[in-house]
Amino acid sequence: MKLHPVVAEVTARIAARSRASRARYLARIDAARGDGPRRRRLSCGNLAHGFAACPAADKAALRGGETPNLAIVTAYNDMLSAHQPYERYPALIREAARTAGATAQVAGGVAAMCDGITQGRAGMELSLFSRDVIALSAAVALSHDMFDAALYLGICDKIVPGLLIAALTFGHLPAVFVPAGPMPSGIGNEEKSRIRQLYAEGKVGREQLLEAEARAYHASGTCTFYGTANSNQMLMEIMGLHLPGASFVHPNTALRDALTVEAVRRAAAITALGADYRPVGRLIDERAIVNGVVGLHATGGSTNHLLHLVAIARAAGIDLRWEDFDALSRAVPLLARVYPNGRADVNQFHAAGGMGLLIAQLLDAGLLHGDVRTVWGDGLDAYRAEARLGAEGAVERVPAAAQSRDPAVLRPVAEPFWPDGGLRMLEGNLGRATIKVSAVPDDRLVIEAPARVFDDQDQVQAAFERGELDRDVVAVVRFQGPRANGMPELHKLTPALGVLQDRGHRVALVTDGRMSGASGRVPAAIHVTPEAAAGGAIARVRDGDVVRIDARAGTLEVRADPAEFAARAPASAALEGHHAGLGRELFASFRAAVGPADRGASILFTGAET
Hints:
With 610 residues, the protein is of the alpha/beta class.
């Protein structure tokens, strides 16, 4: 199938603007490869330290220098449901590596925090920064220079982006991402949302709310709604860093273990020691990045990837911009309805045909680069498949379903839920922002109403409880950007704003903070940049100013006299309370150095381009 002209045009534009930085990046990783395993360059004392604790057979293999040695970089902890299954992976991986004629060592662990636990709490102000901490930690793990490939064990929000940034920094090494899978379905996402909204209205108590939440989050595995964690899994598969069909198989099952063993064997097969060397820095090129953006649009994935994919691309010397997301969104139809963009969960998406059907549909429509290289082979055609457990306990793959098993969850390109990806870039005298409209009612795509200005989400909740927002209103929540307080997600806003919209009011949110995909059906202009703490125009908005959000025209404006608005002194906020406690005092250098949201909100790429 001929490549869609918009996909071809955007890819060419990214490649052209990235030519110099990409060339420097590739030269650097080619130099890092050298002429064989880098541990050969270690002194005898260095090498002996590196294998001192290994079993005798592994020591012998590592002494010889010809056996692939696989790094395990793990985000295991047993507080996070998504990462608890990784507890037993190292033993499984080491044994599979030996069977494949390789060795494997846990190179290091990385932080893994859960936004679901820190939502609305002080710890959430470390969440976005944890992505760069994870990248730095993984770099430390790999700095021993003992490895020929790496297996990355991570699932959730900032963890996979952080691991991938590190993997691309060590781009001369092959990288296979190894998922653990989603938990089985519990209470329906729609029912969970209903109980949350009733709690916000004071109609149910804490015990009823806790019972609903406990029935939703009830076992090991990823949360089943389609937030950033499961968007990560989609991305790793569509970008060719998972094995085909690996993303959404439940933890602690025979098929999940077989997929993990297969991932180890594949990692051992694609090192520079063999004939099929696949360094990750060569696999993740402009085409793979565009494929990731296309997948994000087609599934209604998390808006956090407006930050993460930009930072990931920069790690590979690729200059991805918000306008590229916007252009691709207009060409890619929405094929999946998974909560919060629908009623289903990821298990229902997987059962309906999942990644195999999704990739097949996008390939056949010319919306994906099918000629990319992946960890599995050349081209994406192998990913038109579903993974199953064979009679001998190994993975077998069958062709993806020819049509969706549940058209209420997953549809073909010819019959989409929405004609485009539902993601828009907004621009105007309030700066630049993004908005996700795939779940917003058509009559709410343009909102114009008086502003009510807040400096944190607790102020919004208090005003809601006092009845002060029971009208048409644009809630402007500022000083929530990366420089101000680490750019936390503002999920506490969702129930209150949803109640106001249900009462018939025309309601919207404008913020320099994040909302992930949880804004759902309430129009939300998020990631506003420049942020308030950097003197952005959002800091000059006053109560009563008329604010217009127009997702159709792509504009974000305050209706004020331009000269008068420009002459206003930016407001300030008392942020000291956000800079200490629960470790926040340790991140002062991050807040001082972090770049703007539209450049990935990172401390890692604030100077010269890669």
